[in-house]
Design goal:
Blueprint: H1 3-23, H2 28-52, H3 58-70, H4 82-95, E1 101-105, E2 116-120
Antiparallel strand pairs: 1-2
Length: 121
């Protein structure tokens, strides 16, 4: 497959994912599922096909590194930090003081591995 055909096919996939995400707007569970699928696909490609295709000589490695540098760096899927996520939860909690849900977020990574604890009475 030519480079132009690959780019056109990739753009079609990107457009389909963008449309799916827009159709899920307001449905945080569906959007989270989409993000998990994308993260899983990223890991699958990186750990399988990409690693298997890594260069085996210095010249090819130099070419790859040059391409990575010139084309925007290493692809990375950033995870939302729980502290940032819970800023919204705290604001919502302040707006709904009568709710029975208590959210306890560990303030250090050592506690609960940075995970949230949700307690329902």
């Amino acid at each position: 497959m030519s480079q132009d055909n690959q780019q056109a096919e990739l753009q079609t996939i990107v457009n389909a994912i963008r449309t799916l995400a827009e159709n899920c707007q307001g449905n945080n569970i569906a959007l989270l599922s989409l993000l998990r699928q994308l993260e899983g696909l990223h890991q699958e490609i990186r750990d399988g096909l990409f690693q298997a295709s890594l260069p085996d000589n210095r010249q090819a490695l130099y070419t790859l590194l040059k391409d990575i540098e010139s084309q925007g760096g290493w692809p990375y899927i950033e995870r939302m930090r729980l502290q940032a996520l819970f800023v919204n939860v705290e604001a919502a909690h302040n707006n709904h003081k009568g709710d029975e849900t208590i959210i306890n977020v560990a303030t250090t990574p050592e506690l609960h591995n940075g995970e949230a604890t949700v307690i329902r009475d």
